[in-house]
Design brief:
Layout: H1 3-15, H2 24-32, E1 37-40, H3 49-57, E2 61-65, H4 69-81, E3 86-89, H5 95-107, E4 112-115, H6 117-122, H7 125-132, E5 134-139, H8 143-147, H9 159-165, E6 171-175, H10 180-190, E7 196-199, E8 207-213, H11 217-229, E9 240-243, H12 247-256, E10 264-267, H13 273-285, E11 290-293, E12 308-311, H14 318-325, E13 335-341, H15 345-353, H16 359-376, E14 382-384, H17 385-391, H18 396-407, E15 412-416, E16 419-422, H19 429-458, H20 463-470, H21 489-492, H22 494-510
Parallel strand pairs: 1-6, 1-7, 2-4, 2-5, 3-4, 5-6, 8-13, 9-11, 9-12, 10-11, 12-13
Antiparallel strand pairs: 14-16, 15-16
Helix pairs in contact: 1-3, 2-3, 15-19, 16-18, 16-19
Length: about 500
């Protein structure tokens, strides 16, 4: 039986599908052949199957790195519904659960393990998995390597070392889409070897993109009220997400709109873990609700019937914008995506886009590791971050970030269980200057991405064309049926017309 026939048979037996979606067969065959693979497929196009199918066919365990606990839970539950056992090893699990899951791995009962970059770096999980045998190393939401790795969750930069500790299995990296520059950074950070690239068009014909210029908080709130309460047969009493850049806005708006007919939910990074989970579960499984959230919510959320995604404030990049609007209309039915644009939003965004490590901090971190290895290093030449913190002039997080940046250049290396190994005992100022210069360039890139987002909001031509051009998508010439507010402005004014008519009726009654 040919490989393709074998995969198709497994596709029907294990998942109930008779045919592949575009790109899935190519991605599965590349993984089966042991090739590094980069998958660029829009939300809802079936990326998960691209690792699930070869993971079942290959011998060994498939390791899936997920950026969010909720994402891992969703994907593991999906496998278990098909009778496929999977374990989750992350900070949400108790010691008893983790030991039970680890035993499942040792016994060969589990074919899939979902974890985080932090677990791979800070525990002995890599060593356990290497003993069991890993057939595929999956990096889900791979754009996080570029967007988060350097500045937000630097353990992403060390996935290349985790791969080696796992026994050098092939990597399958997945994301909804990425610009050419982001693709290059993913390949570089993960050190993919001559990867097979599987790319589908980013165009989602059922998503209607619109931008609304606002000149004050009051005008935004008024527009938001209209969007959430006007029933035009599409968005009335249907699930919606309202994205804000700050926790302050999330909490203020949730309180202001607490009297909506639909339940109002909140999600942001400062909430207690259980409160976040309860809020997410209520949105996923409860009655249609409105979720007010920062961008901490939604990555990998597989809810098919979200009818509205509203950006109360400007996202920091076109990539972020596309990822977030892509959570609407996963069932293929029409959905509205509205972006509110107020020039005052840029002040907060510019603050988020700044900041980077400097050369002296990197040199200090390297010197600290040299001293730590001498003073309190173990026999294998590694030292714990906790011990380094005690002798460092840098704060714990800054020290860790510096070590991650040095690791990305092969100067130091993570050794698991929160320990670090020194690879080069001497580092010149030229090297730390170059690393710091790269950090400054990334800060400048964030500013450029922000300007691109502003240009997108202010454009007077097709919005989908702008997005597809950004991602070098060849479909830009075939957008005759585009439903954006520029291509179909009459639809864009439906809410305003209805509101104006309502105001006229009220005026007549009063008079």
């Amino acid at each position: 039986m040919s490989q393709t026939s074998q995969l198709r048979e497994r596709l029907e037996q294990s998942f109930g599908y008779k045919r592949f979606r575009p790109g899935q067969s190519k991605a599965c065959r590349a993984a089966m052949d042991g090739r590094d693979t980069l998958i660029l497929m829009p939300t809802g196009s079936g990326k998960s199957l691209c690792y699930q199918l070869p993971g079942l066919e290959l011998d060994g365990v498939t390791v899936v790195v997920s950026p969010l606990i909720s994402l891992a839970e969703d994907q593991a539950a999906s496998l278990q519904e098909n009778g496929i056992h999977a374990v989750i090893l992350n900070s949400s699990k108790s010691k008893k659960q983790i030991e039970s899951f680890r035993e499942d791995l040792r016994s060969g009962r589990s074919e899939f393990v979902f974890t985080t970059p932090e677990q791979l770096q800070q525990t002995d999980l890599c060593e356990l998995l290497a003993e069991v045998g890993v057939d595929l190393f999956v990096i889900d939401e791979a754009h996080c390597v570029s967007q988060w790795g350097h500045d937000f969750r630097p353990d992403y930069l060390c996935l290349q070392y985790a791969r080696k500790r796992l026994g050098d299995p092939p990597i399958l990296a997945m994301t909804a889409t990425a610009s050419a520059r982001t693709v290059d950074e993913i390949i570089s950070c993960l050190q993919l070897i001559n990867p097979v690239t599987v790319s589908n068009s980013a165009y989602r014909s059922n998503l209607r993109l619109a931008v609304k210029a606002c000149d004050s908080e009051a005008s935004k709130d008024e527009l938001l009220h209209r969007l959430l309460t006007y029933d035009d047969g599409l968005v009335g009493n249907e699930p919606a997400i309202v994205y804000c850049n700050t926790i302050k806005d999330v909490e203020r708006l949730a309180e202001k709109f607490s009297n909506l007919d639909a339940p109002v939910l909140v999600y942001h990074g400062r909430m207690k873990k259980q409160d976040r989970l309860d809020s997410q579960n209520a949105f996923m499984d409860g009655p249609p609700a409105v979720m007010f959230a920062t961008n901490a919510f939604g990555l990998g959320i597989d809810k098919p019937d979200i009818r509205q995604v509203i950006h109360y404030t400007l996202p920091g990049s076109i990539e972020a914008y596309y990822q977030e609007v892509g959570r609407a209309g996963r069932d293929g039915k029409n959905a509205n995506c509205t972006l509110m644009f107020d020039a005052d939003d840029l002040r907060v965004l510019k603050m988020f886009a700044g900041g980077h490590l400097d050369s002296s901090q990197l040199a200090t971190a390297h010197h600290c590791l040299c001293q730590g290895v001498q003073r309190c290093g173990s026999e294998d030449g590694t030292v714990a971050l906790t011990d380094l913190t005690k002798i460092s002039a840098l704060g714990r997080q800054t020290l860790k970030n510096c070590l991650q940046q040095l690791a990305s250049r092969g100067i130091v290396a993570p050794a698991g269980r929160g320990r670090w190994r020194l690879l080069l005992s001497e580092v010149s100022r030229d090297i730390t200057d170059r690393i710091a210069d790269d950090a400054r360039r990334r800060a400048e890139d964030r500013q450029i991405a922000l300007r691109q987002m502003v240009e997108f909001a202010g454009r007077h031509s097709c919005r989908w064309s702008a997005i597809l051009n950004h991602f070098d998508d060849d479909l830009t010439a075939d957008l005759e049926d585009c439903r954006c507010d520029v291509c179909e402005p009459d639809i864009n004014r439906s809410v305003e017309k209805a509101v104006e008519a309502e105001k006229r009726e009220i005026a007549e009654i009063i008079s």
